[in-house]
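Review the following:
>
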Amino acid sequence: MARVKRGVTSSRRRKNLLSYTKGFRGGRKSKERLAKEAVVHAWRYAFRDRKANKRNFRRLWNIRIGAASREQGVSYSKLIARLKKSNIALDRKILALLAETKPEVFKKILEKTA
């Protein structure tokens, strides 16, 4: 069987791993073992926090909608119930944006649901 030299493969693998660690501090950006550990943790946190980000934004939108609807004398839960009952399919992101930037449009939506 022919001899296999693996220098190219190994260095390519190391180079690929170290490309993910740009901006890391200390040996975590240049030493293979530390870099591998750092990248594994970083990817785990990134995956987790993409989910957390969605939760945080939905929470923020709910707060903004609630504040705007209370100014009109309606609670958040009653507003959402009215929207569902009158088949107005606006998601919370859009409602929050309207409440913040165009309160007159938000008021008209509230009047439609009443």
User: Anything to note?
Assistant: The first helix runs from residue 7 to 19. The chain has one domain: 10-113. Helices lie at 7-19, 32-71, 76-85, 92-101, 103-113. The two ends are 82 Å apart (CA to CA).
